[in-house]
C-alpha cells in the first residue's frame, strides 16, 4: 500500500520549509556547473526538458528551477519545459498558484513552459530519453510503500539517538534490515526510471535528508515525536498499540547508500557515471536564529512548524478517527513545542543533507 507522505497543504509547507531549501542549496552549484557539459543541442532539439521530482507546493522547487533556467540560458537560448512532479495527493492547486502569483509567471525568463505531473518518483514519469536535467530534493527518503516490517519500540527505521535515551525505546540491527533492503530497492527503481528518461549526457541531481557517521536528520525530530507520543500513552490519552504500530515512513541514508545501486547493480553501473557524492551539515535557519537571540520559545515554535509540515498528514492518517475529532493532533504538537522549549539540548537538530550528481552515459 502506498504510504501517506504528503506535506501539510494550503501554503503551510511553503511557510515552514526554509530548512529544506538550505539543505538543497549547497548542492545546486554542482548542477549549475555541470550544465556547461550538456550535449550541444542539434537541429532537431526544440527545448531543454527539466523535471523536478517531489516538488510539493512549489516555493522551493520554483526557486531552484529559476536558478537552473538561468544556468541553461548561459548555455543556449532554447525554450525550456519546466516540469514539476509530486504524488497525486499533493496540493497541486497551491503549486499552480505559486507558479502564477498575481497572474504573472514565477518562472520569469522568456520562453519557459510549465507543467505538473502526478506520479511516484519510483516509477516512470515522462517518455523515454526526453529529459536533459532531473532533480529531486528532500523527497526520495520517503518509502514507496508502507513497510510491512514492524518496529514496536521506536517511530523511525533508525537506531534511536544515543543523546536522547528513554526507557523502552530501542531498535535492533535485525529489526532495521528489512527497512534498509526496502530503501535500497526503492532507490534502484528510482535510478532505473531516470536512466530510461534521461538523454545520453543528461544530468541527475539527487539530494535528500540523510545521515553521516555521527548525526542523522532523524535525530531531534523523531526523538521529540516519540517522546510526545509516549507521554500521551503514559497519560492514557493514546493506546500503547498506537505507538507500537506507528512508523514515520522515511529512511535516512548515508552517502554510501545513495551511491550503492549505481556501484552494485550492473544495469545502473552502465547507465550512469557518478560525478559527485557528499554529505553536509547544512545551515538550519531556526538554529541560526536561536544562536543569535537565545530565544528558546521562538526556536521551539519554528522547529515545531518545520516538523509539523511534513509529519502531520502521516500522524493524522494513523490516529483513530475519534481521537482526531478530539483535537489530539493539535495537542500532540503543543506537547512537542513544550518539550522542545524545555529541552533544547536533548532535541538538538542537524540537517544532514546528502547528494549525488550523476551523468547518463
Ligand atoms: C519534504 S517535501 C520536499 C519538497 C521540496 N522538494 C523541497 O525540497 O522543499 C517532500 C515531497 O516529496 C513528495 N513525495 C514523497 N514520496 C514521493 C514519491 N514516491 N514520488 C513523488 N513525490 C514524493 C511528498 O509528497 C512531498 O511533497
From TrEMBL:
Cross-referenced Gene3D superfamilies: Methyltransferase, alpha-helical capping domain (1.10.1200.270), Vaccinia Virus protein VP39 (3.40.50.150)
One Gene Ontology term of the molecular function aspect: metal ion binding
One Gene Ontology term from the biological process aspect of the record: methylation
Keyword Ribonucleoprotein: no
Keywords annotated in UniProt: Magnesium, Metal-binding, Methyltransferase, Transferase
PANTHER family in alphabetical order: S-ADENOSYL-L-METHIONINE:CARBOXYL METHYLTRANSFERASE FAMILY PROTEIN
Protein name: SAM dependent carboxyl methyltransferase
Organism: Gimesia panareensis
Amino acid at each position: 500500500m502506498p504510504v501517506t507522505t504528503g506535506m501539510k497543504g494550503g501554503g503551510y509547507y511553503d511557510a515552514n520549509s526554509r530548512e529544506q531549501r538550505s539543505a538543497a542549496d549547497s548542492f545546486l552549484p554542482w548542477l549549475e556547473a555541470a550544465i556547461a557539459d550538456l550535449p550541444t543541442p542539434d537541429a532537431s532539439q526544440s527545448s531543454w526538458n527539466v523535471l523536478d521530482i517531489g516538488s510539493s507546493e512549489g516555493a522551493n522547487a520554483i526557486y531552484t528551477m529559476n536558478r537552473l533556467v538561468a544556468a541553461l540560458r548561459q548555455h543556449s537560448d532554447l525554450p525550456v519545459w519546466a516540469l514539476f512532479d509530486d504524488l497525486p495527493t499533493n496540493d497541486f492547486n497551491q503549486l499552480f498558484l505559486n507558479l502564477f502569483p498575481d497572474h504573472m509567471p514565477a518562472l520569469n525568463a522568456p520562453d519557459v513552459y510549465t507543467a505538473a505531473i502526478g506520479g511516484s518518483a519510483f516509477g516512470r514519469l515522462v517518455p523515454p530519453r526526453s529529459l536533459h536535467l532531473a532533480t529531486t530534493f528532500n523527497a526520495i527518503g520517503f518509502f514507496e510503500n508502507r513497510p510491512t516490517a514492524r518496529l514496536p519500540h521506536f517511530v523511525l527505521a533508525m537506531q534511536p539517538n544515543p543523546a536522547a535515551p528513554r526507557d523502552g525505546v530501542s531498535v535492533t540491527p535485525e529489526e532495521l534490515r528489512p527497512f534498509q533492503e526496502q530503501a535500497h530497492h526503492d532507490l534502484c527503481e528510482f535510478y532505473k526510471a531516470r536512466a530510461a528518461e534521461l538523454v545520453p549526457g543528461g544530468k541527475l541531481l539527487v539530494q535528500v535528508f540523510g545521515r553521516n557517521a555521527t548525526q542523522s536528520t532523524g535525530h531531534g525530530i523523531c526523538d521529540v515525536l516519540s517522546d510526545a507520543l509516549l507521554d500521551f500513552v503514559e497519560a492514557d490519552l493514546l493506546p500503547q498499540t498506537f505507538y507500537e504500530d506507528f512508523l514515520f515512513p522515511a529512511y535516512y541514508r548515508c552517502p554510501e547508500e545513495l551511491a550503492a545501486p549505481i556501484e552494485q547493480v550492473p544495469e545502473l553501473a552502465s547507465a550512469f557515471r557518478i560525478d559527485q557524492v557528499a554529505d553536509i551539515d547544512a545551515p538550519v535557519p531556526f538554529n541560526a536564529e536561536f544562536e543569535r537571540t537565545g530565544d528558546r520559545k521562538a526556536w521551539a515554535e519554528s522547529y515545531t512548524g518545520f516538523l509539523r509540515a511534513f509529519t502531520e498528514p502521516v500522524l493524522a492518517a494513523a490516529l483513530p478517527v475519534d481521537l482526531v475529532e478530539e483535537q489530539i493532533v493539535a495537542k500532540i504538537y503543543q506537547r512537542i513545542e513544550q518539550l522542545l522549549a524545555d529541552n533544547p539540548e536533548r532535541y538538538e537538530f542537524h540537517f544532514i543533507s546528502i547528494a549525488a550528481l550523476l551523468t547518463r552515459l
